[in-house]
Amino acid sequence: MTTDSLPRRLARTRRFTLGAPARPTVTADGATVLFLRSRGGTDPLACLWALDTATGGERLIADPIALGATAGITGYGTDAAGRYAAFALDGALWLADTTEGTVRSVPVPDAPEDPRPDPTGRRIAYVSGGALRVVGVDGTDDRALAEPEAEDVAYGLAEYVAAEEMYRDRGHWWSPDGTALLVARVDHRPATRLFLADPTDPQLPPRAIRYPLAGTANADVSLHLVGLDGGRTEVRWDRTAFEYLTAAGWDRHGPHAAVQSRDQRTVRTLAIGPDGATRVLAERQDAHWVELLPGLPVRTEAGALVDTADLGDTRHLTVDGEPVTPAGLQLREVLGTEGEQVLFTASEEPTETHLWQYGPDGGLRRLSSGPGLHTGTRCGGTLVLTTRAQGHPAGRSTVLREGRPALPLASYAEPPGLAARPELLRLGPRELRAALFLPDGHRPGDGPLPVLLDPYGGPATQKATTGGLWWDHVSQWFADQGFAVLVVDGRGTPGRGPRWDKTIHGDKAGPPLADQVESLHETARLRPGLLDLDRVGIRGWSYGGYLAALAVLRRPDVFHAASAGAAPVDWRFYDTHWQERFLGHPDEHPEHYDDGSLIAEAPKLSRPLLLIQGLADDNVHPAHTLRLSHALLAAGRPHEVLPLRATGHRPTDEAVVENLLWHELDFLRRSLGRT
What we know:
The chain is an alpha+beta fold. The protein has ten helices and 43 strands. The longest helix has 19 residues, at 654-672.
């Protein structure tokens, strides 16, 4: 272990994110870009900054240290003009005047969550103790508008599955004139109560969480129009048929929401009237599931509904129900509207994501160029373009305004210190996108090399891209230890259209695993003599951890060792919205859940298996790993378990992040023979 190894750099820089600009917001006049950034590549305390788009000059707006805080700013909300920015920090509410450059505390009775100024800049809405409250920007007239009627009821926040699976991370929305709010009420009581405990400190009581297990009841979510006087009108739709609230908002045409059926095959976009009555603006249906995309639905200034439609093998952007993007261009995310212009990301080639705009006058136009993963935000004629590409895992952000030179948002992120060198491949008849990493200094004819597959391999995440993200550097680090590392995006991974997505319907195990095997053999065919197929390991995290464990259980003829982190081994013990999307309701399709269970396959283990689990993981509960370990032990199958104290779904402690990679390397070397 070296003093400046990649594992150590990865740990101390929080995967190279510290010191990089994040969460940019452009003010309405386009004159200022607000963003978060810490002062250096190992400084965890993010500050709020402002960049003048005319001069390129930066101003420090809010410094956590100067405010006496021990944590950094993680998010902020602004009024419509962008003058005021509100944020929660160390249990207090703060308001920054970005024009004057001042910051002051706004006294509130208890710790605030998700503070958001109203569009007119007169008041701030926030959540505290499950109640939705408002306070004047001058600190006066603090009061509750909606208070919980019982324990486990909350107003103004997103429930678990909305935040984790629907891209909806908020629960209250201001009217444009700042006189009312659209508010979600969440009754968590129907959802299953789970507990997380710290076995290393038995004096601490366990932490209770509400987690809707597949096939069980969800939290009960309703919407309400709430006036500043506390008057409330419930929004009415068939909540029995459409129990999921997937999106909501309020624009100059009124409040609106999107709701989804429990089987996820129908999504309706609703206009909401002043009396709470709703009418259907649009409806989407799919025989498998309706795919939700971040940023949708939304409306243009004139009221045209912006949404998406799956036609053939393309996910299109639609405006007023009409597709406005061509076949083969896969819509990924809608970033916002300005006037009649729509800003969005889409992929022509799944290894790249580009920034696009559409308008009825100018048509379709791509705003980014070159390999990478591009995104952005725009207002008042100013565009912030952010690009992630090789060598820049945290991304580079550039401010663009017509007639003026491009301005960089300065980044203090530390470089990885290790150049990732992926060779992008298209493998087999399905042209599976893959990345091959070879050791530094490797020459043709060197080998054969032991192989390490390093996939995620399932829905929601791609790893074989031109984005140069942090996991590329981890793959390269393993390669530099003497492995040929192969990263494969199989069936179900994003970016290749609706038919590709739906190939895993009813079976999240078989097709993705088959694609890993096929890609391994196809790479060996294309690179004769490079891969030692008698020494093949696989590692992964979350779904990737599931895939790694599945590989050694089902295909020990191909895979000789696996490191599986935070693996959801029993699909019935994962959440409703995610699992039922792909597998259906477990009461209706028990075979889909039985066939995917690793616990049932535990007696088959004949290869070394390392299970890694955070004991504070509220996404993949520790019960997954513990149940699999118990089943393996009962079947007399040796294996290793590495529990991580006080660790959630992704380790953040520096010592854990650093040493975990070394531990995995040691396990793979022991299991496959030293490289």
